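Researcher: Please generate the 3D structure of the following complex. Treat every line as part of one assembly.
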Amino acid sequence: MNDSKIAEKHFLIQKRSLIKSIFFKTYFMKHFFKLTLCFAVLLSSVGYSWAQQRTITGSVTDPGRVTLPGVTVIEKGTVNGTVTDIDGNYSINVSAGANTLVFSFVGMLNQEVALGSSSVYNVQLEQETIGLEEVVAIGYGTAKKRDITGSVGSVKADLIVRTNPVQPASALQGQVAGVNVKKINSRPGSDYTIDIRGVHSISFSSEPLVVIDGVMGGKLNTLNPSDIETMDVLKDASATAIYGARGANGVILVTTKKGKEGKTKVTYDGYTGVKTPQIPDLMTAQEFYHAYNDVVLAENPNAKIVWTQQQQANVDAGTSVNWVDEVTDPALQTSHVIALSGGNENSTHYFSTGYLNEKGNLLNTGYERYSLKGSIDSKLNKIVNVGFTSYYTFSVRNTGSLETLRSAYRARPTGTILYKDLINPTESNDKDVDGYAMWMGIKDTQVPNPVMETNADNYLDETRVSSFLGNGYVELTPLEGLSIKSSLSASVFGSRRGDYRGTNTKSRLSKLPSAVIQNELNTSYTWDNILNYKIITGLHNVNVTAAQSALQERFESSGIQVENLPYNSGFYAVNTAATINGVESRLVERSILSFMGRFNYSYNDKYLLTVTGRYDGSSVLAEGNKWAFFPSVAVAWRAGEEDFIKNMNLFSDLKVRLSYGQVGNDVVSPYSTQAFLSQTAYDFDGNAAYGYAPSNIGNADLKWEKSSEINVGLDLGFVKNRIMASIEYYDKTTEDLIQNVAIPSSLGFSAVTANVGKIMNRGLEVSLNTVNIQNKDLRWTTNINFSTNHNEILELYGGTVTRDIANSLFVGESLKTHYYYEFDGIWQLDEKEEAAKYGQISGSVKVVDQNNDGKISSSTDIDDRVVLGNELPKWMAGINNTVNYKNWDFSVFVYTRQGVMYRNSLLSGTMGDLASNRYNRLNLNYWTETNPTNDYYGVWQPEPYRQAIQYMEANFFRISNLTLGYSLPKNVLDRAKISNVRFYVQANNPFVFVKDRIMWMDPEYNSGTYQDDVPYSTYIFGLNLTF
Amino acid sequence: MKKFKIYSFILAFVLVFMGVGCEDFLKETPISDITAESYIVNESGYEDLVKACYPALRDIILQFPLVLHGTDIFQGSGWNEKVVGEGPALDLYDVRYNSSMGDLATFWDILYKEIGRTNSAIERSEFIEYTDPAKKAARVSEAKFLRALSYFYLVQEWGDVPMPLTETVTPDQNVIRVPSAEVYTQILKDLTEAEAALPATATDYGRVTKGAAQFLLARVYLTRGWNFNNSLGGSAADFKSALTWADKVIAAYPLVPQYNTLFPKRNTNPLNQYTGSQNAKNSEVVFAIQYSTDVLTYGNESTPSGNPGNWYHSIFGGQENLVGNPGRTNDYNRFQPRNVPSPAAYRLWDPQKDSRYKHNFLDVIYALKKVTDYAYSYTDPNAKVSYAVGDTVAYWTPWNMPASGAEKGIDEGGTKNYAVMNLIDEISGVPSSRLTAFPITTFKFWEPNIEYGDGFGTFDFALFRSAEAYLIAAEAIVKGATGGTLGGAEVYYNKVLDRAVGVGVDPMRAKVPEDLTSMETVSYRATPSTISIDMILDESARELFGEFNRWFDLKRTGKLIERTERMNFWTKNKGTLDEHHLLRPIPQSEIDRSQPAISQNEGY
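Model: Done. Output below.
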């Protein structure tokens, strides 16, 4: 970088900090005392009562005139309130000037009653018509569900915490039609992948944009699920267009909890449970011995397989070691959250603190998270509102050694755990490590005793993450209907990963310890200025939003790798190491500048129109391609409000929606448009000779990926909205896909980033919510969501090519397609001659000779490989049933995903490789001369097409959650001055149904086996308390 | 009015922000990374670009499967007669020997990556000014040499290949295979230009020198002279050129007196290991790939972590699991049988007279720790043996002196309390007891005092040494070249042999190497009447055993099929090697990525 650039950069930084300092000094400093004062007043107001001058009494009933106990009654604008007793009666003392009472109850609409001179007010609450009045976030604003024109799905707080997820993403699974949430692995604290309405990018992630309290690009897994009020999923292009360039993958708007006006409420939610591990069905010592001794010897009496004396003795004694069982245990999962919220008409607050501990089933692994949240929203005067949120989470994740599971899967069951149990340690060159036999009496130096590896003093892989999200805003409402809001948000994400490997680990063995330490510091700031103006004149209702947003992100990383540490110092004294293997540091920056507007118009509450546009500029794209405009338009007709529909007496709600929009995706990594040099290392006669060589081909033409989407929606309500259905059809085309195109390596490079393709995603989504039974004691509701997706590549490389075998991309097929020879069973004994024609033997994998030319070939024109399937689900469904009976509640949640094919990692790894006698295997039904199965190839006959057997359907059907809860009756609670106490027991993932269980650890994802933990079910006992 | 103060503040705020300017806000200024346009602009930047052309050499010599396997003397895995399962594809030349073999794409990709870098260096030199023009000419010539070397490997393995000669700045999927003859013309052009401009001694030891270019010219001319399938544009005159260039190399790079000084110093008994320093530099080395002890510079690019250093010292197999071995330690280092000698290969040496046999193989293994009452028998649990540290635990007899009766180990009814293994026994593949292990350890490149690991050798790998120049000269003369400085082909040949066996000594090899039962022998000293291509190939097998050239030598001389079918265990027993295998299949990935798909070699 030349001097003028440095100076320019320095100037920018100064300018930015100047802006910030002006902002903070001139505004926040001025109001700091006011804010502090509000805070103090709030706290002191807890339990404080105002002067009492008047008593109001009455009873509260539901529409069926059944009395309602536990209804909250509040004097409006104060914290003064009470609840109705067991007979639905209340009595409240109010100030002389009081003019309104607010009645609220779960499942009912809030009702305000103006106070006159009477002292008795009997109130009948209206049933809440599910959803329609619900307010959902739509990006830079909110809207009532009835006014929504696009496709938006919402998950509320009670559903988010229902299954006690560790990560918020898993709460979305099966809850919103069209949202596919997948586990990455089963380790504690693991992340999930999410895609909305299919996969839209070839080389890059299809992860949706996450917006946390208005801050773009947040990380869902830094949040404690119980701090989330709602997650609103914007699905179609008209809904996401307000996020323009980053909306193509859908948007998840997360709104964290805020204080509510009313008496201060303290809640405690806690649970403790156990995760029970599921162990794969591996061969026992005797089965293993049989497979590699008896079977092989039967075919070839001269082959002798060498077993140590120790192994022979174990086999003969009938003992067997299940090494996976040895390194796993049932594990604890517990969480505790305390939250405090409340406020008055001028100010509301919310504070929460949470602790989560999720142990892994693998010994000595786990995830702990602490969270702390505080927010205050204050009305300083009629014009100025201010607010502040700060959210901090800290987590420690310990994943243990990668080798533990790998060694446990590999270690032969014919081994011996403890050193003292070895007959003759010298035959296997065994070593006593903390009492364990290092080589287990097996004499295979690739696999040391896995139990030894679980010792945290031997091996530690720990990641600490500290994440802060802060937001401050000032909102002015100078005129009726006009609001101007400026919001500044900052996010700081710091992580440190340390990896220490001691002498008694597989990766070091007899060598001195090694350590790696990596640090990451990601910061971003977002500044949004939003203007909103609402006018209602007669039947016309206009709502205009204009906003401007600037986002800058910065990713910094550094790390060092060392080995030969003199003593066990973890990764905290890398300076003492004899050898430094690598050091690096890096900075990546990106920024986006945006201007957007939205125009909502409704006429007579029946005809709705939304027009949105966003103009985005991104730093990562090439000069001249940085800016793009993303428009959308949507219309809706609330036909249910028309008299002729009303007269049909069929629909309680009917709405038709139609939208079209364009959105973008700037997933390309920063600096992709430029060609860089990478450092190379060599030496001349021992003297370092570092060089620099071009590392990639730059692409100065990179531009946005663009998606266009049509969405047709139909919302239906029947029987006073006790049955509500929503049906959506979408058709989305994404073009100018940014892809790392594999290019002929004779060019000197193997890939280049380019805009090359076009994909289509098309699907149908159905959501159905029904209240099946509702009476005084019993309420049974069902929520079903179902979605299909059809993914298809429409064009590759600008239309010149229809098949790109190297990247497994085919026009007319889906992304993530598997292209290989088709499995056709096993060559049997009576097919010996036929097999020989193909150069194969009985017991080996038979594949289909597609063109019947007597040759299995991958050459052009005579290619026998075909598209076998793909990894994208054809359809998914989630079904939730909830039954409330008196004080009991019961729910069951079923989830299914269909049409997914993976190349099964269990089989492609060592556990499916029957060809070598080195490592243990799954207990597979393999071919022998006496067992002529077509399930799996023979012990020695894997090649050349064993891979064909590994492509399998991973369809499953799962009972994801069973919960049974009991709430204490109101009369008991009243005596204890507690408003709610609920106990529950819960089972998560207790049953999964999949075609061939032994082939799958967990069909939800294609486990990388050893870079994982084992799958598990969780059984929980929990308590919810509200004071 | 406070209200207006706030408004004006916000207005100011917005204006200040907009003043930063959209374009400035969105400008990308990478800090961690540097571009060619900003860095390769002067002498120091260009020096770094040329240095970046060297590391690929380390990756190139890791492509030993396509150079050693499936030949007469090396195989990809061990051998035994009663084998279960199948041998490696590269030895069986079977249905799996196809365009999807991973080794193909790896070698192909590395060579073209190197060509890409050298193209950048050659093309960008035009815009660089050096204070010393000779230095610049030398640097450009280094790049030309490395480009020629890469194309030479490519054209030998694959025949007609794509031949980009400029830096790739825009991707183009239209790939054109250039006829082999044109590739040879380009190689010779680069080498001739380089030879003229390179200094005899490089500024840094390890850089390309004039001698390296001369050596490669000799080999390229020799290869073109054979004119594979009449496709290389070669002629008889090429043999004359080969001889001329070889003579220049021979004159400038005298042989060292002792064969074993070319390789790391070590003792075959780890209890008495050599711990002094190593020196790879000697008069015979024409061009060597550099390694050092510096972990930050000894990496291989294709395997950036885990497998750095010179692998050759640890990839020729060995006996990890013998009794009395403490396991994975640096005593015998890693036992990676990636290149296993064929059974016939051992029988090419005179084990007693040829010093190279003793250097190449480790025939005795010692107990490195005390062993008490080891139950060695599969059948009799009471049959036990104990060893003190330093006792022999295994011994492999030379092929021409098999042991029997009392000379055998106790596990086979003999008197020796360790396993005694004959070559002929190993072929059975059946261990007779827990004492047995197959086969004998190949120890040629082994380097002591290297911490146990996955490679980590620090001794330079001599890619060209003058001993081979003698054999090139001998071959050129057999093919009709005249005017050799030293005399006839047998003179060149015997010069190499003399060093190994002593001047005038008559060493004896197995007359029929492939018949393990035959003890018939024949001399391998050359006379004007006996010198032949086969004799030279036998000698290069002995002299250059495991060095990076076997497949190329066999292919060039048209002997690959005949010799491999005779001597390689797998090819001999089950192989389907034929003419089409003389060109490797173009990697499937290259075919799949090119548009339109480039043609495959015949037969695949």
